[in-house]
């Protein structure tokens, strides 16, 4: 499967042209794309990239990929990233790697977003994978209770957990925030849920990426499938 993921990354790379400004995703599949991009840069391709996490930034620097940020670049041509779930409309759940806030900022600043993933990430309806919700550390108890009430109203009768709490060391994002993981099983109204979650003052962002992805390259045992948003 790793070889197929790399092939999906290679197909996404065919859409990159010299002179582009790129967003670089985070995660095991996006890592393949960054590796392959590094080979192109070494061969002379001229790109300027914004990484979506410190992990990706470190990888890119090690490959001598030129980096910038969104303080100096107002728009990007393309972002290539992974996903935890992809539905038939190319709506996504992202955030397993903890970079969802930066991933969403970078994707929203791009003319196009392409996702690379393996076939296990395809779902008929979002919600099988826990939905990450990035929250401020201040007032965590109040925020957690407010999130729980919203989730209950949208049919999430499963666990709401603070990432890392079970291991005795809570997970911190690159921005110093916490992540609540909400288990739905099925999200029937993602747009409404998105609005409700973002109305909670302590919620920084969530992992629903709705209407942002234009194309997905999905690795399967039979090759790479190309999905496009209609």
Automatic annotation (TrEMBL):
Pfam family membership, one: Rib_5-P_isom_A
Catalytic activity reported: aldehydo-D-ribose 5-phosphate = D-ribulose 5-phosphate
Say if the entry is tagged with keyword Transferase.
no
Q: Which organism is it from?
A: Devosia chinhatensis
Source organism superkingdom: Bacteria
Supply the name of the protein.
Ribose-5-phosphate isomerase A
Q: Which residues form the active site?
A: 103 (proton acceptor)
Enzyme Commission number(s) from the entry = 5.3.1.6
């Amino acid at each position: 499967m790793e070889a197929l993921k790399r092939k999906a990354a290679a197909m996404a790379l065919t859409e990159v042209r010299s002179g582009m400004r790129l967003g670089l995703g985070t995660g095991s599949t996006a890592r393949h794309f960054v590796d392959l991009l590094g080979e192109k840069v070494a061969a002379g391709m001229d790109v300027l990239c914004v990484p979506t996490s410190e992990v990706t930034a470190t990888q890119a620097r090690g490959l001598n990929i030129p980096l910038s940020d969104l303080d100096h670049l107002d728009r990007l041509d393309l972002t290539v990233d992974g996903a935890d779930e992809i539905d038939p409309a190319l709506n996504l759940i992202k955030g397993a790697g903890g970079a969802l806030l930066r991933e969403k900022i970078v994707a929203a600043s791009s003319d196009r977003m392409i996702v690379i993933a393996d076939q296990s990430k395809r779902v008929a309806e979002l919600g099988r994978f826990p939905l990450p919700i990035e929250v401020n550390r201040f007032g965590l108890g109040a925020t957690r209770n407010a999130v729980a009430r919203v989730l209950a109203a949208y049919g999430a009768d499963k666990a709401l957990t603070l990432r890392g709490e079970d291991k005795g060391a809570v997970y911190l994002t690159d921005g110093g925030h916490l992540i609540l993981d909400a288990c739905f099983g099925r999200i029937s109204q993602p747009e409404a849920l998105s609005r409700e979650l973002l109305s909670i003052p302590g919620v920084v962002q969530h992992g629903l990426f709705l209407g942002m992805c234009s194309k997905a390259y999905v690795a399967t045992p039979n090759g790479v499938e190309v999905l496009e948003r209609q």
